[in-house]
Design brief:
Helices cover 29% and strands 22% of the residues. The protein has 415 residues and is an alpha/beta fold. It is globular, with a radius of gyration of 22 Å.
């Protein structure tokens, strides 16, 4: 879950001057503050009245900054003050705030970033912080007390299998045509221009699995089946049910990458099989449309408007639409409208990853470098065993992924 955090030892509570903490939030913050398991710091503007609310906080645990300094955030100089104040490494610190502008900008820092929000607007998803919790108690229970959510479920499973207990699913809700749409995502996707691209095996696996020119084409289908199955079978824990599943229809005369995945998924006869109906054959594309990749938000919406049709009555059904990566959500929304047109009770989206928009910063300092020649390394996945490794285009050396990441974390902590 946390991109850069190796161990949580410090928590920085950011306060937005326009919005006070509620009494419930204050109680949750107090519980975290007095646990004595983590160092705490409150980042507040010098003129703020929040200090009256936080009368239980030791004055030494405040870092007062001017509105101008906050406007400059995330300046390296100011963040260095935070690090120095706590006496910790940046990779041991979590920033937590109710202000999405603050968390978006904080994503260029070498620390963990958490947003507290009851409702997530759509444009926040592609600048998603390391985690979004509905309240401070959920942050305490899941990220701190239980040490859960150390990474997203998909990022743990593919291609490196880690402890499933310490993984989580990204969840958000937003309004679509006066309907509440849920989004379940198993990870993040970083494109080739993003600073995280060569640090993230999950992104490499997603793009390689669907590229017919790649030697890894369809190699991760089995893992994708497992991800879908395990996630849906845990929906009962959040009081959500899926009566029917479908994937985004391909263009006419094309085959979806999800067709073989669904064939395996719904041929399962084990006790873990999905208790839902496969309705993929009923959701079809009515016309050819351009690929969405090079289009902006408005262009994407116009490109797929009215492009899908459902041929079956879905009255009362709770439908889950599956896709690989969500960017603006225009394609999924067009599918949702087609499903609502035939009576679906609710439509939710299940994606393997949320596309992360490129952000400035960290291009040079947050990079995997060759121990032999110092040039930047490129992330690859072994086509035989599907394990990630690094390769240097200059000296032609290859390196174990974990070794290079350990070296990277050491360099970050030494800054």
């Amino acid at each position: 879950m946390f991109r850069n955090t190796t161990d949580i030892k410090g928590i920085v509570f950011h306060y937005r001057d326009e919005e006070a903490f509620t009494e419930e939030e204050l109680q949750d913050i107090k519980e975290i503050y007095f646990s004595n398991e983590w160092k705490s710091l409150f980042l507040v503007e010098s003129a703020s009245n929040i200090i009256r609310q936080l009368d239980f906080v030791d004055p030494s645990d405040y870092l007062r900054i001017t509105p101008f300094e906050m406007w400059l955030w995330p300046s390296v100089k100011l963040f260095e003050q935070v690090v120095k104040h706590l006496g910790l490494s940046s990779s041991e610190i979590i920033l937590i705030s109710k202000d999405s502008v603050f968390t978006n900008r904080s994503m260029s820092l070498l620390c963990g970033v958490v947003l507290v929000s009851q409702m997530v607007s759509y444009n926040q998803l592609s600048y998603a912080p390391d985690a979004i919790f509905r309240n401070y108690k959920q942050f305490y229970d899941l990220a701190l007390k239980k040490s859960a959510g150390r990474n997203y479920f998909g990022e743990n499973r593919i291609p490196i299998v880690l402890n499933e207990v310490s993984s989580r699913v990204f969840f958000a809700s937003y309004q679509l045509d006066e309907k509440l749409v849920n989004i379940f995502a198993l990870g993040r996707y970083y494109g080739s221009k993003h600073y995280m691209h060569d640090l993230h095996p999950y992104s490499k696996a997603l793009i390689s699995n669907k590229s017919e020119s790649s030697r890894l084409f369809s190699r991760f289908n089995h893992q994708f089946v497992t991800l879908i199955k395990k996630t849906i079978n845990n929906f009962h824990k959040i009081d959500y049910r899926a009566d029917a599943l479908c994937y985004v229809p391909p263009r006419p005369d094309e085959r979806s990458q999800f067709e073989p995945i669904f064939e395996v998924l719904f041929s399962d006869t084990s006790d873990e099989r999905i208790q839902a109906q496969d309705i993929s054959h009923t959701l079809v594309s009515t016309r050819h449309f351009e690929k969405q990749k090079l289009l902006g938000r408005e262009g994407r919406q116009a490109n797929v408007e009215g492009a899908f049709l459902c041929t079956e009555n879905l009255s009362g059904k709770h439908v889950l639409v599956v896709d690989d990566v969500i960017t603006t959500g225009a394609t999924l929304e067009a599918c949702a409208r087609a499903l609502y047109d035939v009576g679906a009770e609710s439509v939710s989206f299940f994606v393997f990853a949320i596309n992360q928009y490129e952000q400035s910063g960290l291009t040079s300092e947050y990079a995997a470098v060759c121990p032999s020649c110092g040039h930047n390394l490129h992330l690859n996945i072994n086509s035989r065993n599907c394990s990630p490794f690094y390769a240097c285009s200059e000296c032609r050396m290859t390196y174990n992924f974990d070794v290079i990441m350990a070296d990277l974390n050491r360099r970050i902590d030494s800054k």
